[in-house]
Every structure is written in C-alpha cells, then in structure tokens.
Write a structure and sequence with these properties.
By secondary structure, the protein is an alpha/beta fold. The protein folds into three domains: 121 residues, Rossmann fold (3-Layer(aba) Sandwich); 179 residues, Rossmann fold (3-Layer(aba) Sandwich); 127 residues, Orthogonal Bundle (Helicase, Ruva Protein, domain 3). Helix content is 47%, strand content 13%. β3, α3 and β4 form a beta-alpha-beta unit.
Length: 445
C-alpha cells in the first residue's frame, strides 16, 4: 500500500550485496519513492552527477572505496543531499565516524521495515526543512517536530523563533523526553546556519575517556590505536550547530575545555598543541538543575554563564495536556502511514485517559505508546481496552486528598488486580513486588 511518501523524492541505495540492494529497492519503491541503485561508490558518484538525489542510503563496508568516503564526498559537494548509513558491522566507532562525516542516520542490520521507513522519513524531513528554511517568508519558522497549541507550547515556539534569529549560545532545559533535541533542531534549521551540519552529541552516552577525542579530534600517534588523524565533532560541524545533550554529565576537565572553545572559538586536537579555528554554534541541554549543581561545585559557574545566554525551558507533557489529542492524532497518522494501515480514531473515553495520564516519559513515552497501539490494534476505533494496562488502572485510581497512604496503596493494587483479571502474578510483576508483599499490603487495608 502506498504511504504518504512524496513520489518526487529520489533515493539512491548503495550496497555491494545484490540481495540487499534488491531488497531495499523493492521495499522503498513500494513506499512511493523513486529509487536508484548502485553496487559501488564509483557508480553512486556517476548517478549523483546526473540525478538530483534527496537521500543516499549506503553500506559502510564496500570494496575499493568505503561508504565513509561517499559520505565525505556528499557532505563536501552536495549540501541538499542527506545520508543514511546501513551496515552489518555495527560498532560504536563506526557510528561515531559516520555521524562525524555527516551521516544523519545510522541503521544496523538486521532492521525491521518500521526502522527503515522511520529512518528514511526522518532524513527526508531534514531535507524538506532545509528547503523550507531557504524559501520561507520572513518570520516563518519550521517547527521540526515540536508541536503544540497551548500557551506553554507557544511560549517555547516563540523562544525558538527568537533564538533562531540570534547567534547566541542556547541552554535548553526540561525533563527527559520533552523534546529538547527537537527544540535545538528547530533553532538550527530556522537560522542562517540551516544549510550547514547539525550534530547531536549525547555527552552522557560517550565514555569520559573517549569524549575529548570525539569532540575535538586527535592526531596520528596521540594514543595507542590512533593510526591516523581524525577530525572531531566540532570540526565536522564547522559553520553549523553542535547540540551537547546532557552537558551536566561532563567532567570538570571537559567543562574547562568546552569553556575554552566558547571563549576562543578554537579547538585543540588530542596530541596537538596547535589551536584550530571553528565556527560552531553551541546549543546545550540538560534535565538537571544546573544552578543547584553550580552551588554544589559540580558544574563550573563560568561555563554555566557562557551557555545560559538564551534559556528555553521545555515544559513536561503533564503541563500542556490540551496538546495531547493533537499529538496523539499526529503520531497515529504517521505510524499508520508507515504500517500501510488506515489512520485509527480514538474514542472519547480513550482520549480522556491518555489526556489525564501523567506521562512520566513525556512526549517520547506518548510517541512510543501510540506506535504500539497503532501496530497492535485490530479495529479502526481505539477504545479503552486497547490502551496499556497501566493507563487503564491509573484512570481508575483518582483518589481524593487526605486519605491514609496504606488505603490509597491498597486501592491502587486492587485496581491493578482488576485490570489483569485477578492474576496475582501479573499484578505483582506490573507493581514490581513479589506475590507475598502484594498480599501483605492488601491485608493491611
């Protein structure tokens, strides 16, 4: 079934495996894309010279010329073409190198159709946003996925618009899953740097011993295994934006080095003494209280002042509940299109439960829940039984104030038991307690 893919978008698939090439061409063509195929980098370069290609999907390991060399060529010569790396040799080093070279997506084999189509959609979204950023009317701004009509959401969107018109450093704060990276991307693609790279770095996800070399690069011989010089994220993002997620998790030593980059606009590669100029806008993010960390000496005060020039606080989803129906319908339409299914409708009661749920994982949790519901639903109308068990019994657990804690806890447990048909083992697993503890808690009520 045809998805909502734009049939005008041309994709180029590059892989030395005939089977993989045929499989990708067949699946993507069925989704409505115009797909070109190349068995090696040389043929890919020939096709790129004669066809406008929105997205290149390339294997990493290929004979003679590697996929990384193709990524490098595209980044240096084709600013309007995105790159997605697909490989059966999935390693952290390979992913980092692919991202540094300019690959926006990195997909490890084996992958599902949903993973493939999702990665393609995300990459093409970036292409279209870059086009829109160049053609947009003055004052218009691509949201890049940050959606909302409530006052809280509009406040964030207004801050994004103002930040995009500036070159100042931005600090984005908010709980996990609220969309801090979406805010950073919206700022970048709405700014004068939109045609240059946007690189996202999870500072908490890279071991401390590797973070310096990944951010600033290293010289040949700088350490054991450094067989050649490699540029870091800052050099790869030159002219664009680097998003430092969870900057609060960096060490004091790394904080000092980041401060130097902000002050001097220079980086020093590991193993070198020569500073290198970089023109990179920094957008930092954290889900922690940096002011409190500064008071406790866990975060440098001078670095905090440097990154806190423009502050954007992204509210949790529970503080903008009126946006939930719009988000639910948006995600449902997207996942239904990817699965080739009709867009489901949510009953009033089901939507009420989704709206009133506290969403501890915020928009990311909502997106995952809607994805699961759309994939698993048998009917075109989503009703209460189609919702996750936890949400169903959470809706039954609205308690008045000033009740004994044991009574509230026992009623909550009874609601869980009711939702799972009295199955004590399932209830205990959901509550993450053993059967003996569950019975003891019920016995106290």
């Amino acid at each position: 079934m045809m998805s909502d893919a734009d049939p005008k978008e041309t994709l180029l698939v590059v892989d030395d495996s005939v089977d993989t090439l045929e499989m990708l061409q067949r699946k993507l063509s069925a989704e409505g894309y115009n797909v070109l195929a190349a068995p090696d980098v040389q043929e890919a370069l020939r096709l790129l010279e004669s066809h406008p290609v929105a997205l290149v999907i390339t294997d990493l390991k290929m004979p003679r010329v590697s996929g990384l060399d193709l990524v490098r060529h595209i980044r240096e010569n084709l600013r309007d073409t995105e790159v997605m790396m697909v490989t059966g040799y999935a390693t952290v080093e390979g992913a980092v190198e692919a991202v540094k070279m300019g690959a926006e997506e990195y997909l490890a084999k084996p992958f599902t159709d949903e993973e493939l189509f999702g990665a393609v959609r995300r990459a093409l979204d970036k292409v279209r946003l870059r086009r829109a950023s160049r053609a947009r009317e003055p004052g218009a701004l691509p949201r890049h996925g940050f959606l909302g009509e409530t006052d809280a959401a509009r406040k964030v969107l207004d801050a994004i618009r103002k930040a995009a018109q500036s070159s100042a450093t931005v600090l984005v704060t908010g709980e996990s899953g609220t969309g801090k990276e979406l805010v950073a991307r919206a700022i970048h693609y709405g700014s004068a740097r939109a045609s240059a790279p946007f690189l996202a770095v999870n500072c908490a996800g890279i071991p401390e011993g590797l973070l310096e070399s990944e951010l600033f690069g290293y010289m040949k011989g700088a350490f054991t295994g450094a067989l050649e010089s490699r540029a870091g994220f800052f050099q790869a993002a030159d002219g664009g934006t680097i998003f430092l997620d969870e900057i609060s998790d960096t060490s004091p030593s790394m904080q000092a080095k980041l401060l130097r980059v902000l002050q001097d606009k220079e980086v020093v590669m590991l193993g070198s003494t020569r500073p290198r100029r970089v023109d990179v806008r920094i957008i930092a993010a954290t889900n922690k209280n940096l002011e409190e960390m500064v008071r406790k000496g866990a975060f440098r005060e001078d670095l905090f002042f440097r990154i806190n020039v423009i502050r954007i606080d992204v509210p949790p989803l529970r503080d903008r509940r009126d946006d939930i129906p719009m988000l639910v319908n948006h995600f449902a339409a997207r996942f239904a299109a990817e699965a080739g299914r009709p867009v489901p409708r949510f009953s009033d009661k089901a939507m009420e439960i989704l709206r009133n749920y506290r969403w501890p994982g915020n928009v990311r949790e909502l997106e995952n829940v809607v994805n699961r519901i759309v994939v698993m639903a048998d009917e075109e109308v989503i009703d209460v039984p189609d919702l996750p068990v936890l949400m169903r019994f959470s809706a039954l657990s609205e308690m008045p104030e000033m009740r004994p804690l044991a009574e509230v806890e026992a009623e909550y447990i009874r609601n869980v038991l009711r939702a799972v048909g009295g199955n004590v083992s399932r209830a205990a697993a959901i509550l993450r307690i053993d059967r003996k503890t569950l019975r003891r808690k019920l016995g106290k009520a």
